[in-house]
Amino acid sequence: MKLLHAFSPTMLTDLWGGRKVHFQTMPLEAVKTILDEKGIESNIGHNSIATILTKVLGQKVDFCRQKVTINPGDRVIVSHYSGPRLDEDAKEIPPEGCLRFISVEVLEDIPVASTES
């Protein structure tokens, strides 16, 4: 399963054709279970976040900066860090920081209304 550190609508294929996306927060244990079952396809573009996620998830999370494409029917997990800027060699989340997990699922195409009369 794709593991991301951020989400952007531009990751969706044919964004302008319309997409319906479902977001849901996930507890850490549910994330661990899913990633144990499906494996991790890391798309974590920050080395410090990859290091921290390796420790938090108990599985190797590689640093991998690449273009991400999400298709209808795909589900990805976003690990969202909020808090002070992390040092490049950070090994853990600072006390004033927070790491949350969000499931992002592209459900279906949305028909675009015709502009013809």
Any chance you could write out the topology, listing elements then pairs?
Blueprint: E1 2-4, E2 19-26, H1 28-38, E3 41-43, H2 47-57, E4 75-82, E5 98-109
Parallel strand pairs: 1-3, 1-4
Antiparallel strand pairs: 2-5, 4-5
Characterise the protein shown here.
- The chain is of the alpha/beta class.
- It has one domain (2-72, 82-109): 3-Layer(aba) Sandwich (Rossmann fold), CATH 3.40.50.
- The protein has two helices and five strands.
- The protein has a five-stranded mixed beta sheet with strand order 2-5-4-1-3.
- The model has no long low-confidence stretch (mean pLDDT 88).
Q: Which key terms come to mind for this protein?
A:
117 residues; alpha/beta; Rossmann fold; five-stranded mixed beta sheet; 2 helices
Task: Provide a compact summary of the structure.
The protein is of the alpha/beta class.
